[in-house]
Design a protein that fits this description.
Blueprint lengths: L6 E3 L5 E7 L4 H14 L4 H4 E7 L8 H12 L4 H10 L9 H10 L4 H8 L2 H16 L7 E4 L2 E3 L5 H20 L1
């Protein structure tokens, strides 16, 4: 696989956000909405780097397949577009099957044969195992989990509190960098 963990925002961002998420978890969806809104602020775009890591629920039908599909889309440079389609889709069962993932892939003009091969690849499964291993190292037992510069933050954080925390971190980095 190319870069295993998808990154959004400033790749060299001074503030590192890491989220462990599952496409079919309601709490994950709510947190991801907050992250998207927070990263949309003018100061966050270049100064905050969001790294997305998978943490699919073993109890949720289709969760692993969704991550495999998203990582396959990543191999064609379309992780975030696929990610956004998955999060926008209803949680109902028809939106959680290969047919739906194929429709998303077609809508993104992905090579379907490559998409299927990458979804089933050893590399994709290794990336998911690595994400789970990293989550365990950090004490994560369920998604969502959020870290800002290595510090665990409650996924229940309000949007305003998240924006304030990120802005404070960005300003703190800028101040330390100016000294």
């Amino acid at each position: 696989m190319t870069e295993r963990s998808p990154v959004r925002g400033g790749p060299q961002g001074a503030v590192a956000l890491v989220v462990f998420s599952d496409f079919f978890c309601v709490s994950c969806r709510l947190l991801e909405q907050k992250l998207s809104q927070a990263l949309g602020t003018s100061w966050a775009g270049k100064d905050v780097k969001l790294t997305w890591r998978s943490f699919p629920s073993d109890a949720e039908p289709g969760a692993l397949q969704a991550v495999e599909a998203a990582y396959a889309a990543q191999q064609q440079g379309a992780f975030w577009e696929f990610h956004d389609k998955l999060l926008a889709a209803p949680l109902a069962a028809p939106e959680r099957d290969q047919k739906a993932y194929d429709e998303f892939a077609r809508a993104l003009a992905l090579d379907l044969a490559k998409f299927h091969a990458d979804a089933a690849s050893v590399e994709t499964r290794a990336a998911i195992r690595a994400d789970r291993g990293r989550a365990r190292e950090l004490g994560v037992v369920s998604a969502p989990a959020l870290f800002i510069d290595g510090q665990r933050i409650s996924p229940e954080i309000s949007l305003e509190a998240l924006k304030s925390l990120l802005e404070r971190e960005v300003k703190d980095r800028a101040f330390r960098g100016a000294q």
